[in-house]
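ok so for the tutorial part 2 we go from a plain amino acid sequence to predicted structure tokens. step 1 is just haveing the sequence, like this:
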Amino acid sequence: MSEHANSDLVGLILAGGQSRRMGRDKAALDWRGQSLLERARTCLQAAGCSTVHVLGPDGSLPDRRTGCGPAHALYDAMNTLNTKRAFLALPVDMPRLEPSDLTALVGAQRARAYRDHPLPAFFPARLHSKFEPPEHFSMRMLLEAYEVDWIDTDPSRTDHFANINTPEDFAALDKTLN
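step 2 — the prediction. this is what the tokens look like for a chain of 178 residues:
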């Protein structure tokens, strides 16, 4: 855990996808001696999260609505945890993210995400159930419900936000780093 852990910041790892294009569980993929799940957990802890929950079938917060996407999973998790703590969410399949990419989001009074990337995302400490979601909604809709502040991505860091969705993406992971 980070020496700068914030007891008011909860990390959420989205690991509930079916990994159809990858053909196997992305969370278990090994990159540089760590599974993608371990990498995400380490990144959240280094960004200051005192607690980290995994959202998905094998996680600490099982996905209640399998197949409904990350917005439903996050909404359900924030309400299940029923806390006045802030949340920092990231998908398990963005292994290039660095703690500094996450800390740039933390501490705002409103939700915060990168303009071209609705994940990772920060949700401030306040009542998390104010949004009544429709049956189908997106990450952008969820963020807008929290009055999101969109921030620009540093052009030299755009590769940090690439999802690893296929075996080809995974094989090319180290080749595309800046």
